[in-house]
Every structure is written in C-alpha cells, then in structure tokens.
Amino acid sequence: MVKYKRILLKLSGESLMGDQQYGIDQNRLIDYARQIKSVVELGVQVGIVIGGGNIFRGLSGTAKGFDRVKGDQMGMLATVINSLALNSALKETGIKTHVLTAIRMEPIGAYYSKEKAIKALEKNEVVIISGGTGNPYFTTDTASALRAIEIEADIMMKGTRVDGIYTADPEEFLNARKIEKISFEELYKQNLKIMDLTATTLCMENKMSVLVFNMDTFGNLKKIVEGENLGSFVS
Predict the structure, then answer these.
(1) Closest C-alpha to 148, from 33, 32, 45
(2) 116 close to 110: Cβ distance less than 8 angstroms
(3) What stretch of H or E contains 214?
(4) Confidence (pLDDT) at 61
(5) CATH number, domain at 173?
(6) Is 1 inside any structural domain?
(7) Of 53, 76, 197, 71, whose CA–CA distance to 132 is shortest?
(8) Which of 54, 56, 57, 127 is the 20 to 30 A CA-CA neighbour of 17?
(9) pTM tops 0.70, yes or no
C-alpha cells in the first residue's frame, strides 16, 4: 500500500553537485536513481522536474550582464543536461524512462505534452520533464507546479537539502524552527520563500499540495510514499 499513486518530484540542480562546486556528482546521481527506482517498484507513477543551478542559473547570469531571455534559455538547457544524466542513471537501474522537453529538440527528447506524459506514467515509466516551461522569466519551481497540475499528480514533492520548511534558513540561523504543516496563505503572510510566488499561486489555486523534504537522506522518498510523516506539508 502506498499513500500516493502519482507524484511530481522536483529535484534541485544544486543538490546534484554533492560536495563539488559545479557539475554533477556521480554518487549523488546514483543515489537519486536508486531512491526513485524504489518507489517505482512499489507501483508509484513518477514525473520529475529537475533544476539546472549546478550548471547555470538564468538570474545569476543576468546579474553578470547576460540578457535575461538568453540567460533563462541557457538555464533551460542546463535542466536538459541534468535530465539526460538522471535518465541515464535510471536506465542503468533497469527502470524505463522518457525525457520530454518543453522546447523541441529531437532526438534529445520528445516534445512535451500532457498526453505523452500520462501515457508513459500509466505504463509505470518514469517521465523526466526538462526545459522548464519553455519560456523565460519562469523558474523550475513554476515548471514543477505546472507539470504537477497537468499530469494530475496526487502531490508535488520538493526534494531539497533540508528536511522541511523552517521559520528561517536553518543553515544560517540555529534558532530556526521547523514547520510541520502550513497553508499556502500562511506561506504568503510569513514570507517563507520555499518556491517563487508564481509557483505558490499555481499550487494554491489548483489545490496542489506540496511536500518539502530532504532528498539527500537515502530512503526518505520511499518512506514518504509509504505513509511516514517526513518533511513539511503545504496545502
């Protein structure tokens, strides 16, 4: 028995770096692939959106003088690179996967559509949706919220380096308090930026609950889909 039948898993590009300063840590990649495989084997349908911050972030590029649109396009391409890497790691574990792209770039990946994604999910095949929304000025958090709604996921799971939502950054403030459960309205009021405003609004208006948890602790993903209360729940 599993708590969620279909999930949208948002993975952080920065987490893929592991202890490196840039790029993809092979051990972290394999760790993620094994965790995803463990829930697929339970019958959970898994859609994935992964960030690109370990390679390039559009906003940071803009700060260095890049045109915002070009910077965001570079960031979208970074998510495709990460998606291909995760796709390869998952296939090594024996899991069937598909990379769909928000911008046409066959043969790298098939062009995304809701129908393609759901058809693959119903066959218990992992779908990795890359390229953000395909448009500049939108983050991968917004892309995750959008795709979670489109594929009719039971929940959007945001895998991070911390074990939930805190009143302040727990890596900077020792007195930061963990929040187990919170509404989207309270997120607004307390200015807790777990996602950008567009992503938060999309989830709130479409009643898409979000679970923030530590993906870097091996086994957490499986524990959550089996019903264990980990992380922070937003609804």
Answers:
(1) 45
(2) yes
(3) strand 210-214
(4) 63
(5) 3.40.1160.10
(6) no
(7) 76
(8) 127
(9) yes
